[in-house]
Each structure stands twice: as C-alpha cells, then as structure tokens.
Amino acid sequence: MFKPKVIIKTAANRHPEASLLIIYTGGTLGMVYDKEGALVPFDFEQILERIPSIGRFNLQITVLSFVELIDSSNATPDTWQAIGRAILNNYSEYDGFVVIHGTDTMAHGASALSFMLQHLTKPVIFTGAQLPIGAVRTDARENLLAAIEIASAKNKCGGALVPEVSIYFNYRLLRGNRAKKVQSILFDAFESNNYPLLAEAGVEINYNHSAILKPADGTSLNFRCCFDPRVVLLKLFPGMSKQYVEHVLNIPDTRGVVLETYGSGNAPTFPWFIQAVEKAITEGKIVLNVSQCLGGRVVQGRYSTSRLMEEMGVLNGFDLTTDAALVKMMLVLGEYGAEAEAAKKELVTPLCGEMSVK
Ligand code: ASP
Q1: Total Cβ atoms within 10 A of residue 218
Q2: Left if phi > 0, otherwise alpha if psi is -120 to 50, otherwise beta: which for 171?
Q3: Which end of the chain, N or C, is more open, meaning fewer C-beta atoms within 10 Å of its C-beta?
Q4: How much is the pLDDT for 255?
Q5: pTM to 2 decimal places
Q6: What is the mean pLDDT of residues 4-17?
Q7: What is the pLDDT of residue 219?
Q8: Ligand 1 contact, 25 CB (< 6 A)
Q9: Cβ(109) to ligand 1 under 6 A?
C-alpha cells in the first residue's frame, strides 16, 4: 500500500528539533497540472521544488506515500486501517504525524484515527487543500507548512503541544472528530460547531491549551482497528415515505443505525415510524440519535417527539457529528462483535473528546 519511505532534505543538522512522518494519501493538495492542463497527482519527493520553505525547518521529515493515491471519496475503513498501521509501526520513531488527505471525507478519516489511536501522546494532524499545490493561489502551502509546525511543536517539558488527532485548515486547528466539511468553494472548508478551536494561526500560532486533550499518565497507545461497516444512516425529512424508512431499516445484515433527527433529537410520532424503529431495536440493531443541526445537541425527552425515542431504547448521540457517529458505530460494532451491551456503553461514552455528555 505504501512506497518506500523518502527523507526530505531540510535544514536539520545533527540536532533536529523534532522528527515528523508525513503520510500522503492523495486528495487535491498534491495535484499539479500536466502538459495538457489536466490535474494529476504529483510525486511527493518533489515537495521541495513546490514549497522550498519546507527545507528551512530544522526537522527530520520523512514521507510515506500511498502507492496508489486516492481521492478521499474512495476512502474506506481499509484506508483508515492503512493510515493507522503506518502510525502504529512508526510511533516510537517520530514526534508527530501529518496526514495529507482529501477534504471530502477528511472528517470521517480524522474521526476514525481518533478512535483507533486511544491514549495518543503525539500529534496526528490531517490537512489538505481546496486548490492543488500546482495552482497559483493554492492554499496547500499554508496548510502544509502550519500543519508541520504544529505537529512538531513541543511544550517546555518536551511533550507534544497537541497530542490528539486534529485537522489543520485555513489558519485553524480543529479537533478531528468534531470537524465537518462545510464548504466546497471557499477556503474555510471545515467547522467545529460544538467544540472550540484547538489553535489559530496568525502572526503566531495561538494554542487554546485548555481545549486540547491531555494524555492520561502511565497509559500506552492502544490501537483498535476493527470496523464493521454494516451500518446505515437514516436521515429524516418531512414527507418521507413509510417504504423509505422500512427499506433502510430492513437492509439485510444491518447492525447499527445512525438516525439523523431534527433539532434536539426529535422525530415523527406517526405510528408506522415508531413501529419501524421499535422493530429494528427488537431485532437487535443499535440505533443512535444524532441531530441534523450543525450546532447544539440531542436532548431526548425535551419534546414529546423525542421522549418516545428514549423509551424505545434509542441511544442519545448528544452533540456527535453524523460523520463521527457513523465511524464510531462501525468501530464499536467491529470491536465488540455480538456483545451489544458493551458496544452500546461505548457509544454513549466519550472516548476521545468526540462529544460532550453534560
Ligand atoms: N475530492 C477531493 C478529495 O476529497 C477533494 C479534496 O481533496 O479537497 O480527495
């Protein structure tokens, strides 16, 4: 899946300030124009030609590139596993990791890695770009340079400043499992409506220390990589038909349902709808309630239209994003197999800052 590692020539002398591994998976960032004017992926070994300032970092930078670069629309749990294994296998050798990834499913990828790398003590920073590195006004340059700087930033004791999985984009650092792609044209592609920024880059990079996860003492990296993709997303909309709801809930083999409800977790109280959800739960499917709103949270029981959810055994997804909810559902189902109670318990417990339950 990966090409051999390539060491990038930087100003690092015998005493580099930190060592970084860049994992290049594809996406718009690494695209250049070929002779015919079409966008094609570029060979990351030539990064210094495109962004010579990378050479000025006093860092030891190594690049690990997918053999086949992908548009992140083609990402699957296999992609997340490959990135996770690359980090696991190189964990002790590097101080930080930068993952270059397409923006379309970057929030899913960053969420997945946050759940896979429990008790992380080093930065894993996803970044990408809206305009290719070969475009004159590209945002790739700033995004990559700042991601490298943040991934190598250390505190006074030599520990990482941001020991969690995050996304750096357009001058802002967001928690990966709280982020959502909200823009396809403008440069500010990501939002994190329910959690503060971890850092903001201006003349200096200002870290929001109180918002950044602190690694637990005495724990070592716990790598989890089993995903069960037998999950469906049921998005509610006024006028949806009984057939639509029943078809989605009855897809053979489904084990988990992310129910994207209205407002603070509300759903219709039509008997056919309630019966369909109830039947899914009776059959052993796990149903998790998240909101279609970008900000706010699910409060089951606030309105009578969500009280029924609570009574039926639908789990409260609090302020989880839909992207993080889908990935977390796949992970807990993969991890716990048939132990539905253990899977349910993890779904309503924050694992790495992905939701606020209070
Ligand atoms: N389709 C691209 C991708 O997600 C878009 C991007 O990189 O921004 O791979």
Answers
A1: 6
A2: left
A3: C
A4: 96
A5: 0.96
A6: 89
A7: 80
A8: no
A9: no
Instruction: Give the confidence band of 51 by pLDDT, cuts at 50, 70, 90.
Output: very high
Choose among 77, 59, 75: nearest CA to 115: 77
Strand-pair partners of 125: 98, 166
Catalytic residue among 10, 25, 28, 261: 28
Q: Would you state the pLDDT for residue 305?
A: 82
> What value does the mean pLDDT take over residues 224-228?
97
Distance from C-alpha of 291 to C-alpha of 305, rounded to nearest angstrom = 13
Does residue 62 have an active-site annotation? no
3-state secondary structure 149-174: HHHCCECCCCCECCCCEEEEECCEEE
DSSP H helical ranges for the chain: 47-50, 77-90, 106-116, 140-151, 242-249, 271-282, 304-312, 322-336, 340-347
Mean pLDDT of 239-247: 98
Q: Are 173 and 148 in contact (CB under 8 A)?
A: no
CB of residue 28 inside a 6 A radius of ligand 1: yes
Length of the chain in residues, anyone? 358
Give all domains of the chain, ordered by start, each with its CATH number.
6-223 (3.40.50.1170), 231-347 (3.40.50.40)
